[in-house]
Amino acid sequence: MPNSFKSFSDAFNSEPAFEGLRKIIKESDVVSDFNKIFPDLEKVASAIKVERRVLSLKVENPTWRNELKFREKLIVDKVNEYFKEVRINKIRFV
To answer: Which residue from 15, 37, 52, 78 has the least number of CB within 10 angstroms?
Structure first.
């Protein structure tokens, strides 16, 4: 294989042209893995999207919304610890 060729994974992880796609994939990983990180919240809250490092959580019950608001820092820290990098900075409850 010539030296000028890169594997797809090397190109995807290093080329600036793929930065937007890498960001979208990282954001969607938070949404898809939310119930793996917090299995006890599966019936209470569901992750909707991540936009500009803000996780949108849908919480039907106002009591749970208030409780989760108090635990926001713990949730943010646990998500970032799970991915071993800063993926979210805050949570928006909808």
So the answer is: 52
Residues 48-74 as b or e (16 or more Cβ within 10 Å = b): eebeebebebebeeeebbeebeeeeee
CATH number of 8-93: 3.30.300
Question: Is the CB of residue 7 less than 8 Å from the CB of residue 18?
Answer: no
pLDDT (tens digit, 9 = 90+) per residue, 81-90? 999 999 999 9
Judged by phi (left if over 0) then psi (alpha if -120 to 50, else beta), residue 53 lies in left
What mean pLDDT comes out for the span 8-33?
87
Considering just the CA atoms, what is the radius of gyration of the chain in Å? Answer: 17
Q: Which two tokens stand for residue 70?
A: 């108090």
Judged by DSSP in three states, 80 sits in helix
Domains of the chain, by residue range, sit at 8-93
* H-assigned helices in the chain: 8-14, 19-37, 62-70, 72-83
